[in-house]
Amino acid sequence: MGKGKGFLNEFKKFITRGNVVDMAVGVIVGGAFTSIVTSLNQDILTPVLGIFGGTDFSSLTVKLGSGEAAPVLSYGNFITAVINFLITAFVIFCLVKAINALGDKLSHKEAAAPSTKKCPFCKSDIAIEATRCPHCTSQLEPTKE
String of b and e for 29-43 (b: at least 16 CB within 10 Å)? Predict the structure, then answer.
């Protein structure tokens, strides 16, 4: 009975951890985003490709066998799914790239203010607020801001 409680507590800790919740939100948003990309492909890109001699991929099929009960291979739907995947991957790539660039800009601004300085006597790295070097115990000039 003790093992069951420990397992449930461990599961509770796992499920309430921030990363799992973030991942769940990502999956939900990704599901909603997929419908947007599917619409983009079916309602905008496919008709535009049709203008330039393209075809509506969803109608591409091969009948396997003869008769009305013969299975139909809808490879056009597969091509559409591949196009949807590539568009989704490209848009997500662009979003991640933009978010990373923004994060880099913000981290560079934060990193602009140094947190350490060099002791003029022993050349050790010390805290910017230090008035005495912890290594050589020399008295330091206050930092001018």
Answer: eeeeeeeebbebbbe
CATH number at residue 96: 1.10.1200
Q: Which tokens hold the place of 87?
A: 């568009």
Domain containing residue 98: 2-112
Element (H, E) at 108: helix 75-111
Q: Is the pLDDT of residue 114 over 80?
A: no
- Summarised one tens digit per residue, pLDDT across range 22-62 is 788 888 888 888 888 778 777 887 777 667 665 567 778 88
User: In the chain, at which residue ranges do the beta strands (DSSP E only) sit?
Assistant: 62-63, 72-73, 116-118, 125-127
pLDDT at 145 over 60: no
Same domain flag for 80 and 27: yes
Q: Give the pLDDT confidence score for residue 97 in this predicted structure.
A: 92
Backbone angles phi, psi at 34, to 5 degrees: -60, -40
Q: Answer yes or no: are the C-beta atoms of 91 and 37 closer than 8 Å.
A: yes
130 and 108 co-located in one domain: no
